Amino acid sequence: MGTLIWTTIGAILTLSVYSFLYKDNPFYKFAEHLVVGVSAGYYLVIYYYNFIDPNVVTPVFQLRLGDQPIGFGSGAWWLALIPGLLGLLLYTRFFPKVAWVARWSLGIYVGGYAGLGISPVMQARVIEQIGANALPLTSVTNVLIVIGLLGTLAYFFFSMKHRGILGVFARTGIVFLMVGFGASFGYTVMSRISLLIGRVSFLLHDWLHLV
Amino acid sequence: MKRTWLTFLAAAAVATSLLGAAVAQEAAPVVEEEVPREDVPLDTVAPAAPGALTARDYLDSNDAGDKIELDWELSPDDGAGSCDVAGYFLWRSRSASSPGEIVAELPSGQTHYVDRNLEPGAEYFYSITAFDGTNESAAVTCAPVAGRVNLFQTSRASILALMLVFFGLVLVFTKLAERGDELFVRRIPGLNAIEEAVGRATEMGRPVLYVPGIGEIDNIMTIASLTILSHVAKITARYETPLIVPTARAVVMSAAEEVVKQAYTEVGQPDAYNPDNIRYLSDAQFAFAGAVNGIMLREKPAANLYMGAFWAESLLLAETGFEAGAIQVAGTAMVSQLPFFVTACDFTLMGEELYAASAYLSREPKLLGGLKGSDWMKVVTIALVVLGAVLNFMGFETFVNWFRTQ
Amino acid sequence: MRREIPLAITFLVGLFMLVDFFVPHHSVSAAAEEMKQWGTIVIAASILLGVGNLIRVHYRKIRRKQDGWGYSITTLVAMSVMLYFGGPWGTIAEGSAFNWMFLNMQVPLQSTMFSLLAFFIASAAYRAFRLRSAEAGLLLVAAIIVMLGRVPLGQLLTRGLPEKATLPWLTETIMTYPNMAAFRGILMGAALGVMAMGLRIILGIERSYLGGEK
Amino acid sequence: MSEGFDLRRIDRRIIFVLVLVAVVWPLIAPLRLPMDVSPPVQNLYNTIEEIPAGSIVMLAGDYSPDTMPELQPMTDTFLRHAFRNDLRVVVACLWPASPPLVERALLPLADEFGKVDGVDYVNLGYMAGGTVTLLGMGASIPNTFPSDYSGTPVREIPLMQEVQNFDDIAFVMEISAGTPGTREWVQQVQSRFRVALGSGTTAVGAPNFYPYVQSGQLVGLLGGLKGAAEYETLLEYPGLATKGMDAQSVVHALIVVFIILGNVAYFAARRKGRA
User: Fold this and answer.
1) Whether B290 and A42 lie within 8 Å, measured CB to CB
2) Distance to chain A for D8, nearest Cα, Å
3) A52, A153, A180 ranked by CB distance to C183: nearest
4) Is D200 exposed, middle or buried (0-12, 13-18, 19+ CB in 10 A)?
5) Facing residues of B131 across strands?
6) CA separation for the pair B383, B378 (Å, rounded)
7) Pairing assessment for the beta strands B208-213 and B123-131 based on DSSP bridges
8) Which range (A15-29, B4-18, C117-131) has the least confidence?
9) If contacts are CB pairs under 8 Å, which of residues 62-91 in chain A contact chain B?
10) What tens-digit pLDDT sequence spans chain A (211 residues)?
11) Model pLDDT for residues B228-262, shown as the tens digit of each residue
């Protein structure tokens, strides 16, 4: 019985969302506002239990009692204070006099990830691609790959007008881009339809037992 | 975390392949062993101990000094003699006085092992024994050894080299630009479309919707989006057109607030800034998309701008926006979503154009210098691909191998 | 000072993380690892900023009785219920009310919204795939070939033709060569954009994300 | 551009309704569009067909609910195949979420074929450890899985009296959504104990395993919903996968028709505009 109630709730919510396809309506509005509320509560709780509690609260409060460190920080307990403090600094923006301090956290975060991102991107998307694309031009397909790559790169050339030889390459690039976009579009159709099949069989099979 | 995993996977792969090789080699003896299971009296004789064991720092300049390489000679009973060695136990200890623990159980026939995930620089004592399933031989030991810590990962030299070339190009062009050299940058069609879209929203007296993607603020696409947002906010401030910015990440929301507030102040319209229009909706991807769809249908923005990192929600937004009759301009470097933006929006900034846009919009020489640097890097890259292809064709593979990194 | 300190922090942290990639020394990677964790905590701590914004926007909507203020009550109630069940007196373990609400409300709602894409992908295809130009024609032809080549229907349509004229083979070929070449090009260009932007962030040239001067 | 009658601005809700019909209709009434069976699926089917009745086969379920749409039909069909041919089935899982999913397919099919728990089949449930568990099974399956999913000790299960290790298993079907999964089964079990191994994986994962099919380490492979549908075709029992593939085919064709119609309308309107 309990399962039936929950399945029915799930089915009604599912139909509410699909009603949006007809037009915006109270059912959709309700479903939309519901999921926003539920997910806000969900993430607040989950972030606390998954990140703040094990990595800030527990180490700081337990280590002073002489317990073993928990969480990923392997260092001293005061190390756990730093991220806690950085997190708190974000909230200085509500106090106009010290609002600028909030940028420290942002600076560390953005700067850190900017630095972190550069080298792997260089490795995976430039260096290794050079290795992968420096193909011996002995087969039609290899020639196709190299020309496509060079053409696309030429399309993204900003400091010259696309005329002459650059223009020829850039136009070749557009041809490859269009074929690529069309193919990706077609390729994605399949997975999107299977999502719909999944939901429809939930309605027909799990709820109505029709199939 | 990721590095640890990779190391783990690599270790697993090496171990498996070694074991696989050993199993393949030893297939015959293994089968033989099973037949006499009951007929033969219990084996009480231990196999002969393996020969000399040597341990040394793993000879690879890329490791963190946490690996030690071990070699030994086979036991005389392994594959010869009484032919009953089933494998070897490798023992490791931090002191000379105790044998410590078994760190690896290795198949017969193997004479090599790399011990991983050790404490860098610490001294270890190793010993090895042979076993036949019931009995273990005497242990063979070797001199203590410690891993040596390396300061530079040489297998990544090509990455560093090209990175320095790139940074050099960017800095040189930035300097040139600051000196006042005129740098040409071609028009990016999507950018003019942004201004037109905002202009039309103003004429119609309807708001502008700016979605900075659902990437976190550590995503460079999000940062580029905030730069473009600053530009858009200045236009809407001037025209006094409402600007709605829904976000999926709290930090992006707070950064967007700062960016928009600043833009309104710079244009001299600080009072027109409405904090209720910069909204955090939901971290959940489709809850966010559903709520943005609601905004499109109920607050009826005349221009929808999607700039930043998007995933599957891209088409959900762009189709609803189209149905609502808005002019739509998108910009993203997510290749998987580009086809959908290209088909459903009026204009799309593709890939690098998103990053170039921020430089183009500001017209600041420093940023334009970066754009020029990227272009020349493209020339370098193209040259390397072509050179590689030619050398590859001629049979020189060393050059290409330099670009196979770890 | 107010601008210099964060920029200096950004520069030092960014440079350190950049260097980390090339230095296998354990003390460097340990410190980098620790700092990455700080980042996740800063993000986790920020969620309250977002939820605060959400509450403020909906609360004002209700107080001013703006259009649809009733739905805003739904949002606030749903959130409060989740917080109640997940609070210190509740539990988030499997089988708890918190988990039930997540599994039976958020999950189906989200996956249904995701599945709306099946409809939208059809309407987008109908509208956008027009033979306006040669390029648009390529887009269209590639999409149709791949769409048909991925399902049994495509096999049926070209059954009996030589292998290199069948739809599945064409699909495979388009995906492996032109599609891959184009996407590699986009990714390479975008990578240069990312690196240039990253460098500008570290050097403090790009700082719009930090907001105002004051 | 002139706006005449407008197939170009057709209400998109008409498209939505057609898409919905195209999905629902094949689900309710399977079309059974003929399907070409690819060699890896055919091989898998043939191998199982050749196993003598009464032999013991193993189903290794290593997936979770999120990949159910693709993989559950494979579990269904394999079990149906095994029961139809009077093979006895041992289920063992390396993923904690798998046993209830397999159970969902197992119980109704056992009912349908009149099979008895503990005699004709047993669900040993989940065991943590991944690769280590696989190696343990190589030495002794009863020691590795000391009790079945419902908690009955293996020594009290008649079927398990005949199962010591992989020598007693005629065939292993691995339904895999990731790691540990097909790769581990090939590397740890197939290459050591030389057991006949077949696998069903997600469409995304399948290309990684084709090399194993070529080398013969996998006797067959089901890739995604399509692979599952081909298997169902061979068994002549169209289930969820066949219906799903029918729906896929119909929707894809429908979209192509939309595109063509859209273009006809576009050119008609353009000609009118010119005249």
Assistant:
1) no
2) 19
3) A180
4) buried
5) B87, B136
6) 8
7) unpaired
8) B4-18
9) 90
10) 567 888 899 899 999 999 999 999 999 999 999 999 999 999 999 999 888 888 888 777 765 444 444 444 455 677 888 888 999 999 998 888 888 888 888 888 999 999 998 998 998 888 888 888 888 888 888 899 999 999 999 999 998 888 999 999 999 999 999 999 999 999 889 888 988 988 898 899 888 988 7
11) 999 999 999 999 999 999 999 999 999 999 999 99
Domains, in order of start, for chain B? 2-146 (2.60.40.10), 154-171+367-401 (no CATH), 183-363 (3.40.50)
B309 Cβ under 8 Å from any chain C Cβ:
no
Q: Do D28 and A211 touch (CB under 8 A)?
A: yes
- In degrees and rounded to multiples of 5, residue B295 shows phi and psi of -60, -45
Q: pLDDT, tens digit, for every residue of D74-106?
A: 999 999 999 999 999 999 999 888 998 899 899
Domains contained in chain D, number: 1
Report yes or no on D253 lying in a domain. Answer: no
Residues of chain B with C-beta less than 8 angstroms from the C-beta of C208:
223, 226-227, 230, 259, 358
Positions of E strands within B157-296: 208-213, 243-247, 278-280
Tell me, yes or no, whether D189 lies in a domain.
yes
Determine phi and psi for B125, rounding to 5 degrees.
-110, 125
Boundaries of every domain in chain A: 1-94, 135-211
Q: Residue D76 is part of a domain; what is its CATH number?
A: 3.40.50.450
Give, in order, the Cα–Cα distances in Å from A71 to each of A46, A54, B7, C36, C41.
15, 5, 21, 14, 12
Q: Which of residues 177-196 of C touch A (CB under 8 A)?
A: 177-192, 194-195
- Asked if C52 has any chain A CB less than 8 Å from its own CB, the reply is no
- Using a CB-CB cut-off of 8 Å, the residues of chain A touching C53 are none
Contact C86, A45 (CB under 8 A): yes
Which of C185, A174, C178 has its CA nearest to residue B348? A174
* H or E, element range at C173: helix C167-176
| Facing residue for C186 by CB, picked from B278, B344, B350 | B350
- DSSP category for residue D52: P
Specify whether the CB–CB gap between B65 and B121 falls below 8 A: yes
Residue D167 included in any domain: yes
Chain C nearest-CA residue for B65 = C25
Residues of A with CB below 8 A from B290's CB? 17, 31-32, 35-36
| B and C: number of Cβ contacts within 8 A | 210
Which three-class secondary structure state does DSSP give residue D223?
strand
Closest approach of B200 to chain C, Cα-based (Å):
23
Q: Which chains touch A (3 or more CB pairs under 8 A)?
A: B, C, D
Query: What CA–CA distance (Å, rounded) separates A194 from D27?
Result: 12
| Three-state secondary-structure class, residue D198 | strand
- Using the beta-carbon criterion (under 8 Å), do D251 and C122 form an inter-chain contact? yes
Beta-bridged to residue B328, according to DSSP, are: B304
Residue B59, pLDDT score: 63
pLDDT mean across residues, chain D: 89
The pTM score is 0.85
CA distance to A199, B159, B260, C155, per residue, from B263 (Å): 45, 38, 5, 57
- The single-letter DSSP state of residue D189 is I
Measured between beta carbons, the chain D residues lying within 8 angstroms of A193 are 23, 247-248, 251-252
Domain containing residue D92: 33-237
